[in-house]
Protein 1
Amino acid sequence: MYNPNQIPWHQDESLVTYFEKTGVSRRKFLKFCTEMSVMLGVTSLVTPRIVNALAALRRPSVVWLSLQECTGCVESVLRSAEPTIGDLLLDIISLDFQENLMAAAGFAAEKALQDAMTLNKGNYILIVTGSIPTKESGVYTMIGGRTAEVILREAAAGAAHVIAVGACAHWGNVQAARPNPTGAVGVRDIITDKPVVNIAGCPPIADVVTATVVHMLTFGKVPDLDREGRPKFAYGAKIHDQCERRGHYDAGQFIERWDDEAARQGYCLYHMGCKGPETFSPCPIVKWNSATSWPIGAGHGCIGCTEPHFWDTMTPFYTRLPNAVGIPVERTADILGGVLTVGALAGIAAHATFTGISRTRTRRELPILEESRRPPPDGPPL
Ligand code: SF4
Ligand code: SF4
Ligand code: F3S
């Protein structure tokens, strides 16, 4: 459970000084920096640069707007079973304005927002969760008598960087699903004069948000993005190419009912509607809840929550979508089966070599290739 730190970080203190005050050891700090460089996919030669940049850091200001949303993203980013230094970093940078966490309410909260934007004009990081309703002049989300769009435009104007956290903030998510009654749009539809980083997912993985912020604080710029605005270090590979069940897919071993023997054996969920072949996300590697599990690991197919407008493009969730992407998924699943295994594994290995996330895989000992090399367990006739 996340606990906001009560020890203030003064403006003139470096992060190292602050950590000394709060009892965070140098070893823990270095471990965090190493983990961040692994997550960002940079070589170990860059780790000292991250260490030096963060150590010298003066208290960075973050303004976090919660617009038309469910607060699930805030829960995901800030809640953890075991508080880590990553939580601590987010705690620190989130303090200037975060409505769900701050004690202030009403006029005091509005003043805190204005103060944060004025004092740190041009320097703060703006994090946004939630969509922006545009129909009926935006009346569907009003805070302090102003629409979400007005608040967002004002906050983005003075921000150094803008991060849209979650599917609501980037594509409008379920609110924007047909027929989109509130005219919900994402941040990038409103803010067009600066890059908007999209930490995709419903909700997204907290470690990806942390790594993105660390990148900005270390290098002073946003990480490389794909055409959807997602950081390539995290969203550069398909779920399907990192999935622990991929060996079963290649062997033509599929679950056909939620309670069949194949389900008990952990076979592939493609016939149950899994959208892993069309979805780019680090979920199989970084995982959730202190890296204990993830949707497919828990026995449910991926519903494609990191992809644009997934409520419209990935539904029905429990029906497979044939050939939705460039590769003939149906054909490989139903006809070619096991004969593809060797080639597919070679492809996975080659791809993994070039992704930063693959290094996280090694560290977290997710044995994708080892798993796939094992003979498939006995199951029912398929
Ligand atoms: Fe909630 Fe999902 Fe929107 Fe995040 S992206 S605020 S979890 S609906
Ligand atoms: Fe994994 Fe889904 Fe691909 Fe099967 S279809 S291997 S469950 S991502
Ligand atoms: Fe979302 Fe699929 Fe990951 S549903 S949480 S991208 S496994």
Protein 2
Amino acid sequence: MEVVVGEPTRVQTLAEKNPTQVPPEYIQAPENRPQIKIPTTEDDTSSTVPVIDLFGFDPDHWGDVRRELGQACKEWGAFQVTNHGVPIHLLHRMRSVGLSFFKDSPMSHKLSYACPPGSAASEGYGSRMLVSTSNDTVLDWRDYFDHHTLPLSRRNPSRWPDFPPNYREVVVEYSDCMKALAQKLLAFMSESLGLPSSCIQDAVGDFYQNITVSYYPPCPQPELTLGLQSHSDMGAITLLIQDDVDGLQVLKDGEWVMVQPLSDAIVVILADQTEIITNGNYRSAQHRAIANANKARLSVATFHDPAKTMKISPASALVTESFPPRYCQIVYGEYVSSWYTKGPEGKRNIDALML
Ligand code: OGA
Ligand code: NI
């Protein structure tokens, strides 16, 4: 293991030199390279990530919504929601301040927020996901800004960009809206398994929430590299918005399926702790982001995780003689440390817990 020290290369800086090739550290092994295919109208619509209308949580629709959510959680572990109650202009403002930080502020300003090199999951401007990398680790074609937003004791807006001027205020408002939506979704998911509505939330405890704005610059050879390598998210539930550029893909039955960019929708990605708590009834989604030759892409992912001290195990109501526990109990902080040292490599981390 080689510990990375010193400032990492910023992908945006590389891309601004208009290279004709990606540097070798960004070239994926042939089996991990994306197959860039243009969707055709004949494509089977059953392989489209589900889009679920939440009808603003109108009680008249609860039954149908629960059923649709339950099915999407079982079959996909990822779906999009519309009429989710989060003001659409807030989604636009969040994307707009995020994009402005990356595109309109000078590198010197961005670097004043640089994540300390060599520390895991720290807040700020970063380009490398892992702390220590072996020599053969391939880098992602992405820069990001990570914000610690909840609980309030971790929220310190003075560590976030102050450009554009409304940046911090938008992140605060966005954080609160995402928390409320995540809670409502977990309640529906619990009910769709026949559990009391608070079951999953009680198992997760108070959310630790991080917001990561990812910026994927245009890439000269998108067929050789990845914006973000294949992984499942570690925590409980991720809510993601993207701009109008394709890039996010979900693995379904061995095929990578593009999540269609819908500007008013929110992408819901089930993460590993929800898979454990639901005893595998609901699966965390393996996903990745591909790069794009012509356009920069922006996404905003909001992660909702348990506290590091939480013990996570399958909900007792879902463990019976005929359905024994499928995962061993973990302490969430230990799961996170092992993820950051070993790397995501698909779903290897949660697969290691299977009984
Ligand atoms: C992530 C993630 C996908 C994207 O940050 O965990 O999966 O489209 N992002 O940026
Ligand atoms: Ni992810």
Protein 3
Amino acid sequence: MIILGIETSCDESAASIIKVNKKNKEVQVLSNIISSQIEIHQKYGGVVPEVAAREHVFNLLPVINKSLKKANLNISKVDEIVVTTGPGLITSLITGVQTAKTLSYAFNKKLKGVDHISGHIYSPFIDNWKNIKFPAMSLTVSGGHTNLVLMLSETKIKKIGKSLDDAAGEAYDKAAKMMGLGYPGGPIISTLGQSFLDLSIENKLEKLPRPMLHSPNFNFSFSGLKTSLLYRLQKDKNWKKNIAEYCYLYQEAITEILIKKTLKAAKKYQVKSILVSGGVSANKQLRQGFTAISQKENLKLFLSDLQYTTDNATMIAMASIFTENTNIKDNWKKLKAKTESDFK
Ligand code: KG4
Ligand code: ZN
């Protein structure tokens, strides 16, 4: 089966073609094309929804064409078109959904809606579908979500924890903005934090707190951490000189909370595998930390491949294999019948 995936939930216009062999649990990624708008939004310090939607209009069809070309396929060979239906920026989502609907109508292809977070959850399956053992604990850390999900099987999944306020990626982005470092904050804080580590100098500054690390549930909270950093910067006249160390401390706090809570959940539910996905899972310290802890605890670790951590359409195509069709609200068949009768 050949699937064309389309993703436009935020500021990436993305299309992907995958070839699926369900019986062997194998996926071949024929193309994974991403057109990022980061440079455009950087000057505003974050994504501007209206600008993002307009850029999708310009970029999406060329991106889809490129993905077909890279896969060396004509659209007639595609069996199914799948598209992100939410959550995300509504005007961005609409662009992707309308494009997918139009292609489905014009080329008479099946159409399926996919949840964006499911895309992240299933991104480690792209390379490792048949190796993942259940039960598994999945941590998704993106710009909008921080979720712990217990996977009893490929399709039987249950959310057991989430952030009660800011998501981990949001915490990175807001802290970077506070320190005047630009957007997106995760990679910038990570690079500066790593530069402090690479210098191998001793910490001068006190650690930052770990909110909800010992709470009796699997929820997270990051907005207090961001406020703690703000108060520390306000008290420190030399904070600009110490900025790399503050980035290191901030990253250290987020990483420790994410790893320890995931491990606690993994132990409680006696899982065999840990899955980590979402934009923040590109973080080097987080990847190293999870690698070390899973070796120590004898758990199989499946980190999303780096190219599938931030938003992409391959993960959307992958998730469509395991998930129900999500809310493409108008009944497509009815709409098609109406359009046809309108043109008679
Ligand atoms: O999954 P994603 O591309 O988009 C959402 O669905 O939100 O995640 C984007 C988030 C941003 O908050 C960004 O700062 C963060 O992922 N991020 C990182 C790194 N790369 C991206 N956070 C920490 N370290 C990184 N290396
Ligand atoms: Zn995402």
Protein 4
Amino acid sequence: MDTGTAPKPARPKRFLSGVQPSGKLHLGNYFGAIKQHIELQHEGDCFYFIADYHALTTVEDAARRRASELNQKKPDRAATLRENTRDVALDYLALGLDPEKTVFYRQSDVPEVCELAWILSTVTNMGLLERAVSYKEKVEKGIDASVGLFTYPVLMAADILIVRSHVVPVGKDQVQHLEMTRDIAVKFNEAAGKPVFPLPTPRLDKESKVPGTDGQKMSKSYGNTIEIFAEGKPLEKKILKEIVTSSTPLGQPLDPDTCNVFALYSLFASDQEKADLAADYRSGKIGYGTSKKLLLEKITAYFEAARQKRKELAANPDYVEEVLRRGAQRARAEVQQTMSLVREAVGMKPQTVG
Ligand code: ADP
Ligand code: TRP
């Protein structure tokens, strides 16, 4: 037997994150989440999924938005979910998700998460869920307070724990859900008398607040987004007409630190470009019309290759379906191992098929 002293290679870190298919992805989603997801592919094993079970909790809202965009009288929930799911898949693949490296799947193709969510719900305190800020915020916004919306954090815990992930890249708004996941995992491990689940940690995204066209945080629900894949006239209109600026007359100095155009430009520009534009603002040499044009050029160039790729992918829906099918196969192989441990730990038999 080899008793050599060579250290064992460290197990690669496992990252997991989910994105809800709840509408067109925007620059806030890109700089706040997607960009980091893509970069992490080089740092460990990544599991990324399209959270369509989660999106069912707010699909009525998304369907209403879609109906108003399409001038339809009646919102169509199923068509909305289908289309939004397809859009997220296309967006991620076009923006650089590598389906050979990363396990990329649709949540509903891995129904074991619902089984685990049920089992976890039996060790989850009502009090824990009642403290969830995101639930309260959604209800305040007018979303129906369904049981599904209330137990959303348990399903999210199941997503994370079922692949036994270590690190979950998310935005600030999701940190409380991660704390709940850890709480639930501890409860389960204690009840099982063994560490079935590792305790996952959040990894905070760098850009936590990309401003929208009105200066508030960019968000679908505020109607202030700039979509990643907007182009041509609609993109021009967004940038040149809809970004709100101060009413300082042309020729007067402008303040880069409070300007939405400048904040958005900074996401794309090098340090030197940012310093140059800031100097032009302060000297009064430049007006908002010109800085908006600079921003428009940056956005157009930055996403040019991804836009091209997205068009090619959109013309090949079978390929996209195949990617998701293979991703689900790989995810299921992993989650079934977890579910055997879980079922055994609670006194059930492992699942046998056939
Ligand atoms: P929306 O507010 O448009 O509904 P989501 O809540 O679906 O967006 O956002 C998904 C993820 O995208 C968030 O967890 C966060 O990481 C990121 N995100 C969304 N909007 C922004 C923003 N304006 N700035 C930074 N990150 C954002
Ligand atoms: N709740 C997340 C959001 O709204 C999406 C999500 C669902 C998720 N399950 C997850 C994120 C698991 C990270 C891990 O953005």
